[in-house]
């Protein structure tokens, strides 16, 4: 007996938990049969259900629990996003099912009895027990061995269950002792890249429900793009005329025809089966939703902006939402890498800055070259081992300041400005920066939020005497709006290179402004770190929305170093330099592009040799002779 067979024979829907109380009929939503049969299949270890709301996915979870209590007793765990959600499911979903389904009624103790076998979050039955926990409670997830694990709304789980780590992985560890374990993951998806259910679905065989057209018989996946409706003579929308159009013959299906066609559909996998069965559904398949209601919801969401549109995409279409600050695909960046000699600066790079991220056991530094229009090239990635507690580590960072990189023209270049994060071991960073000199080193502090008057502000003097007097020669701290530079970096990463572009930025003028060049030697781990965060919209307790950067993975040093190097370029004044300044830098390096030649001012030799004021906030050039400032 499969779970769907058991449900058809025994399950009773309760009036307080269903709009259609009475006997369960799997044929009411035929797509549920394939999902429940996959859970019953001994060869399937994991079942993933990524779907919209209103398709009955929670009832599938309920049927799995009821079947195993009655037919195949085992230790069962149901995981909800929070403990409050766990209590709500126990009281409003499970208890009515156990009360109204005859075969379960005698197996679950009366909740009013005093034997302790039927508590809200823990229930015993012959041969097993049911534990209901919240994903925010690490003690509940790690309490006992489990054979059947059912995780509902996994995309609403916290990033970590206390200090224990990912709650889904923590719960899965409870099943390792069972050779016949079963794991069911269910959720409406959220943001692309941060969605647990999307990641799990992509690792599955990716089954979708194909429906035959009532007119021509062509099988197809039901998509929102095929839902159409009329407009009145004034251009106003008429959602009451909404219907589904066949992708092959354009036949229009009203709701009744659509529901009849869905009852004849079948699941087809898009990837090989590897022990994980994945199912995707949207609200168009639901026998409880009319297209008129979906059309009204869509028009309302579109008028409400991104936040309401995100809700429609997630809950009605069962798809992930791409935020405006969505992290670029690191695999796409893998295909955009360019080849130029390692440790050298391509011709378009006219100045070097570096960003340093201080970690517990190391300091990571990325060296970036900058050119006209903030076009940039990753020149070097350096890891200095030892940590901030060891003098040798700081000496290695000082040596890096004195190191030079060969420009494509043959001129050696050194780091013009290094920005170092002060968030970890602040006193040690200040001490080293004071020793290295603030002309070349800029201690920085990251600030969240976009509502900053300037992406970089300062410097402020942060050293003081015992009496509290500021030291004019003390450490100078720059405040950096990291959100602004992260968004800019991701915008640059989405730029497409021109066709037949030169390697290593040789065709510098052909690339769009801000284009970010990546060398061939950079590895996948570094690319993952560069794209380790995404911009999401979150709401506070009062319901106000704000943008916030959230990690997609734990390590993000490459992104942080990029932000600090970018801040160093801003401090130097690269955002405000006129073309004449860039042309002067190119002249010092012996670089003269055909595009830049007409724009270079004609200066007499005497003027070219005269001292000149730096347009950045700090320092002067001693001489205009080649290499003196660089």
UniProtKB/TrEMBL annotation:
Q: Where do the coiled-coil regions begin and end?
A: none
Name all Phage terminase large subunit GpA ATPase domain ranges.
18-267
Terminase large subunit GpA endonuclease domain sequence ranges: 276-579
Which InterPro entries would you find in this protein's record?
A: GpA_ATPase, GpA_endonuclease, P-loop_NTPase, Phage_lambda_GpA-like, TFA_Chaperone
Tell me the classification of the organism that encodes this protein: Bacteria, Pseudomonadati, Pseudomonadota, Alphaproteobacteria, Rhodobacterales
UniProt xrefs under Pfam families: GpA_ATPase (PF05876), GpA_nuclease (PF20454)
Q: Where is the composition biased (Basic and acidic residues)?
A: 611-621
Where is there biased composition of kind Low complexity?
601-610
Q: What is this protein called?
A: Phage terminase large subunit family protein
Note the PANTHER family from the entry: PROPHAGE TAIL FIBER ASSEMBLY PROTEIN HOMOLOG TFAE-RELATED, PROPHAGE TAIL FIBER ASSEMBLY PROTEIN HOMOLOG TFAE-RELATED-RELATED
State the residue spans of region: Disordered: 1-25, 601-630
MF terms (GO), sorted A to Z: ATP binding; ATP hydrolysis activity; endonuclease activity
């Amino acid at each position: 007996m499969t779970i769907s067979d058991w449900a058809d024979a025994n399950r009773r829907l309760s009036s307080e938990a269903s709009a259609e109380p009475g006997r369960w009929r799997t044929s009411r939503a035929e797509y549920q049969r394939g999902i429940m049969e996959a859970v019953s299949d001994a060869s399937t270890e994991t079942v993933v259900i990524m779907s919209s709301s209103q398709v009955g996915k929670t009832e599938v979870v309920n049927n799995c629990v009821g079947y195993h209590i009655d037919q195949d007793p085992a230790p069962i765990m149901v995981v909800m996003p929070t403990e409050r959600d766990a209590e709500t499911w126990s009281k409003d979903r499970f208890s009515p099912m156990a009360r109204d389904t005859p075969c379960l009624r005698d197996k679950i103790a009366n909740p009013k009895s005093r034997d302790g076998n039927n508590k809200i979050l823990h229930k015993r039955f012959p041969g097993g027990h049911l534990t209901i926990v919240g994903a925010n409670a690490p003690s509940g997830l790690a309490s006992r061995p489990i054979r059947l694990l059912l995780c509902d709304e996994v995309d609403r789980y916290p990033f970590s269950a206390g200090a224990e780590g990912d709650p889904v992985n923590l719960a899965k560890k409870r099943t390792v002792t069972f050779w016949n374990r079963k794991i069911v993951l269910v959720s409406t998806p959220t943001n692309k890249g941060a969605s647990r259910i999307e990641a799990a679905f992509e690792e599955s065989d990716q089954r979708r429900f194909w429906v035959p057209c009532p007119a021509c018989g062509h099988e197809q996946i039901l998509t929102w793009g095929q839902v159409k409706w009329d407009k009145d003579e004034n251009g106003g929308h008429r959602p009451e005329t909404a219907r589904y159009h066949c992708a092959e013959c354009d036949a229009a299906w009203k709701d009744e025809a659509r529901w009849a066609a869905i009852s004849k559909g079948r699941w087809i996998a898009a990837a090989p089966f590897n022990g994980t069965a994945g199912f995707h559904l949207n609200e168009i398949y639901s026998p409880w939703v009319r297209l008129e209601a979906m059309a009204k919801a869509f028009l309302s969401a579109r008028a409400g902006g991104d936040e309401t549109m995100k809700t429609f995409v997630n809950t009605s279409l069962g798809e992930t939402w791409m935020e405006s600050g969505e992290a670029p695909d690191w695999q796409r960046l893998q295909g955009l890498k360019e080849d130029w000699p390692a440790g050298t600066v391509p011709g378009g790079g006219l100045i070097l800055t570096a960003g340093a991220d201080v970690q517990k056991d190391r300091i990571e530094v990325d060296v970036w070259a900058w050119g006209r229009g903030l076009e940039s090239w990753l020149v070097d990635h350096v890891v200095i081992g030892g940590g901030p507690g060891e003098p040798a580590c700081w000496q290695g960072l000082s040596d890096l300041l004195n190191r030079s990189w060969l420009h494509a023209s043959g001129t050696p270049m050194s780091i013009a400005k290094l920005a170092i994060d002060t968030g970890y071991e602040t006193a040690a960073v200040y001490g080293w920066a004071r020793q290295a000199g603030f002309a070349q080193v800029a201690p920085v502090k990251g600030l969240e939020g976009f509502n900053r008057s300037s992406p970089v502000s300062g410097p402020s003097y942060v050293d003081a005497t015992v009496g509290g007097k500021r030291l004019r020669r003390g450490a100078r701290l720059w405040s950096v709006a990291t959100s602004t530079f992260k968004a800019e970096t991701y915008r640059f990463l989405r730029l497409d290179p021109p066709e037949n572009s030169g390697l290593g930025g040789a065709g510098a003028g052909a690339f769009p402004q801000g284009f970010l060049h990546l060398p061939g030697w950079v590895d996948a781990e570094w690319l993952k770190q560069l794209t380790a965060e995404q911009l999401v919209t979150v709401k506070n307790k009062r319901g106000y929305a704000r943008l916030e950067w959230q990690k997609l993975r734990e390590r993000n040093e490459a992104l942080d170093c990029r932000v600090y190097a970018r801040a160093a370029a801003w401090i130097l004044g690269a955002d405000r330099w006129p073309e004449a300044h860039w042309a002067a830098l190119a002249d010092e390096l012996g670089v003269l592009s055909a595009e830049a030649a007409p724009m270079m001012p004609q200066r007499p030799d005497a003027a070219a040799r005269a001292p000149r004021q730096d347009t950045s906030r700090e320092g002067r050039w001693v001489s205009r002779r080649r290499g003196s400032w660089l």
